[in-house]
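Schema walk-through. Below, the input block comes first and the output block second. Nothing else is stored per chain. Lengths vary across the set, and this one has 571 residues.
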Amino acid sequence: MSNTERTAADVMIDIIHQQGVDYIFGLPGGAAIPMFDALVQSPIELVLTRHEQGAAHMADGYARASGKPGVVLVTSGPGATNTITGLLTAHMDSVPIVVICGQQTTGNLGLDTFQEADISGITFPLVKHSYLVKNPQDLPRITKEAFHIASTGRPGPVIIDLPKDVSSSIIDENVDSSFSIPGYNNDPEPNPEDIAQAAAMISRSTKPVFLLGHGAIISGASKEIAEIVKKMQIPVVNTLLGKGIFPETHELHLGMPGMHGSAYANKALINADLIISVGARWDDRIAGNPDKFCPDALKIHIDIDPAEINKSIQVDCAIIGDARKVLDKMYSLLKPADTEKWLKQVARWKRDYPLKYKKEGKLKAQHVIEEMAQLAGPDAIITTDVGQHQMWAAQFCLTEKPNHWISSGGAGTMGFGFPSAIGAALADRSRTVVAVVGDGGFQMTLCELATAFNLKLPIKILLINNNYLGMVRQWQSMFYENRLSGVDLVGNPDFVRLASAYGCKGFRLKRSADVKKVLTAAMEYNDGPCIIDAEVAQQDDVFPMVPAGATLDNMLLEPPKYKLDKPEGST
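--- output ---
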């Protein structure tokens, strides 16, 4: 073997390191051993997880916090299929991750051999692209292509299905790895006429609203948005994943609209004469009934993905392109309109319909979450799981900067919050990371406490423990005559003792009077992960609420005094 001949796995790992990768998350198995062997001499740190789903969520959290692709390495068969939920989560939220799956040898493909699964076929709808590598000479090129596709245009997950005989093959490390992808337009040039039309619409509007989504964060458009908001005096609302694109303490920020958004954000959308959507896909949790969404408002949609244009909401002006570039080109064309009356009205709504909760009585989840966010500070990264606590965190954790809020929006993946916090903590060890989780979702991936403990990551796990699958219970209470089914989490463990069993620290919180004291003690503990077991009111509900399929003007500010009909087609 010449000095330039190495295993394909060794060459691949070197190329991955050249992409700026610091960590690979995964679990080994027979078909992936050549790749794990190549990591022994690599500067890339292997994060050994306790489950492949956790590995995918860690890579996702790392990617969102760092802006770099997250990488997962697993074996074939069940190792590969265990990443599917993580792939869906990343796909729905446009997160760049590269998942490398070991596979049976090429000669055994299709023979149903041990731990064989057609992972490329299974995941076809969930990935931006997938590769089944049969020629070892192609692996260097494919590796570079995979990272390029995952991280450009509208980001998303990419699968590399890698047979064991391919990764074990000897190749020349200098093999040509250049690539060209015909038809892949990852950076479409926006049409100047569309930009001019949008600028004219904004300049004429006296009641405009910005609707900012995750695409604006991916684009890095914070500066451009702030400049236009200042020049044009336009109020801002953001989607769940758009939190942080514009400072939430700014006087023109109105919070999150939609199903559990603020009343004043929803009122602003309902009464606007123009809605400017930037990197938001008019999700049903925002739009409710798309056929009746804000019919009196003109709509502008800026998005890099042409597939999102007019998909659910028909718009009056569409601009296909990178949000930051579009807004930068638009700025000089804008002429300030008179929005003074509009801003006064918006300010009145903000004053008259504040987000609120009662601190009296049993410990409230909202109180604990709000206090933790204040103690953590504006530089902290907040990750969440999915459920009531997620909505309360969205309402009461004020996010000031992009990439400081990490949550599963499109897929609504329970079990995401804690492992994504591990990835986020590795992206920047200097930052405080708080995982806000529920007692339902946390138990789906709590085995990763061992991973966090071994890494000595001082993650604060704020466990909202109400012994219920709270969001489903709320719906059953409101729409199914309080017929509760499958939501009572009988037999929850003692989470403080559970933390101790994993070598972590546990704090118990039961009384409102102890909130600041207990949370301060948790914030000061930095020897590893800690769980704050907050035993909160069991049957509290999230308000405001727009029933699924309803229009925004049907939002409820408090529990109804009568049974609601289940919205048609609601989920």
